[in-house]
Amino acid sequence: MNMGSKEDQEMRRKILAELQEELRRKPLTIGVVGVSGVGKSTLVNTMCKTDLPTSPTVACTREFESQDVSITVRGGVVEGYRAKLRVVDAPGLGESVEQDPGYLEMYRRELPKCDVVLWLSAARNRAIALEQQYLAELVGVNDRIVFGLSQVDLVDPLDWNTEVNLPSGEQRKNIQEICRDRSERFSATIGSTVEFVPVSAGRRYNLQPLFSALLERAPDERAWIFSGVKAFTAGDWVPEKYRGKVMRGSGGAGSSSKWASLLKLFQGKW
Ligand SMILES: Nc1nc2c(ncn2[C@@H]2O[C@H](COP(=O)(O)OP(=O)(O)OP(=O)(O)O)[C@@H](O)[C@H]2O)c(=O)[nH]1
Ligand SMILES: [Mg+2]
After folding, report:
1. pLDDT at 10 (0 to 100)
2. What residues make up the domain containing 76?
3. Domain count, the chain
4. What predicted TM-score, i.e. pTM, was given to this entire model?
5. Cα(215) to centroid of ligand 1, in Å?
6. Longest dimension (CA), the chain
7. Within a domain: residue 239?
8. Which of 52, 100, 131, 187 could form a disulfide with 194 if both were Cys (CB 3.0 to 4.6 A apart)?
9. Which residue among 33, 55, 62, 158 has the greatest number of ligand 1 atoms within 8 angstroms of its CB, and so is best to mutate?
10. Which one has a higher pLDDT value, 136 or 259?
């Protein structure tokens, strides 16, 4: 017999109310940025199942485009709960000298609103001086950046293993080498350690590790919501101010096992 189920239900209701309130105030917001053509809109389309325009030939996105999506909690006692996630697709930097000042202005205005910034850099682009310049300029606007090495399916020798949907052995070595090299260069630019996550939106490759890296980079005061939609695992995901409220409201010194069971509420999935 489950002695604490009523209290558990009540506590769960309160936690969800807090979560919903915080998400209503400001959804989890991820900004996707980088130079033109690295595949920002394509990645957003893949993640959010949207239909943003993309182009194989010319610069495409002209404004910051916000997509609100729900990520559904899978598993646990609140299976089916939908948390709102905002993914913002940025125009590509470096499109032209005419456009750049305006785009940079937009970046300076929009990036502070993002919890996390996803900086995409195309695997095959070796001329990264321009990206380094933008990064040096924008890291002061929002430094919670995750770096994604995009379009890795286009790395030589172009023999993607379609059967298992993974890079071939040779490709994997080259991708690792590019990640290492790019990490080194970008680290030097911003003066702190950068690590690139290899991804391919086209092949839907490595999106989950990318998402996890984004969740981990969330600002401390919002990290509890991010971990809430990911998985309730540790006992400290709810900040004190909420925990106090929740525990008081539950009518007493809730047992640690009860609390632990509540921490398993969510198991978010992309
Ligand atoms: N092979 C491959 N092609 C990709 C991938 N991601 C994007 N592309 C292609 O790259 C081209 C540019 O993609 P976009 O998504 O428009 O790039 P963007 O960064 O949004 O470009 P701007 O809006 O101009 O800044 C398109 O032709 C995409 O189909 C990928 O993972 N693999
Ligand atoms: Mg675009």
Report:
1. 79
2. 27-231
3. 1
4. 0.83
5. 24
6. 70
7. no
8. 187
9. 55
10. 136
Q: Tens digits of per-residue pLDDT, 190-208?
A: 999 999 999 999 999 998 8
- Per-residue confidence (pLDDT) for residue 15, from 0 to 100: 72
In a domain? residue 248: no
| Nearest ligand by distance to the CA of 58 | 1
> How far does residue 145's CA lie from ligand 2's centre (Å)?
19
Contacts of 209-217 spanning 24+ positions with Cβ under 8 A = 210/118, 210/146, 210/148, 211/47, 211/270, 213/146, 214/30, 214/116, 214/118, 214/146, 217/116, 217/144, 217/145, 217/146
Would the CB of 93 count as within 6 Å of ligand 1? no
pLDDT tens column, 1-23: 444 578 777 777 777 777 778 77
C-alpha separations of 27 from 50, 67, 101, 117, 225 in Å = 18, 11, 29, 14, 9
DSSP code per residue over 229-241:
HHB--STT-S-HH
| Burial grade of 30 (CB within 10 A; 0-12, 13-18, 19 or more) | buried
Say what percent of the chain tops pLDDT 90: 52
Q: Is residue 142 in a domain?
A: yes
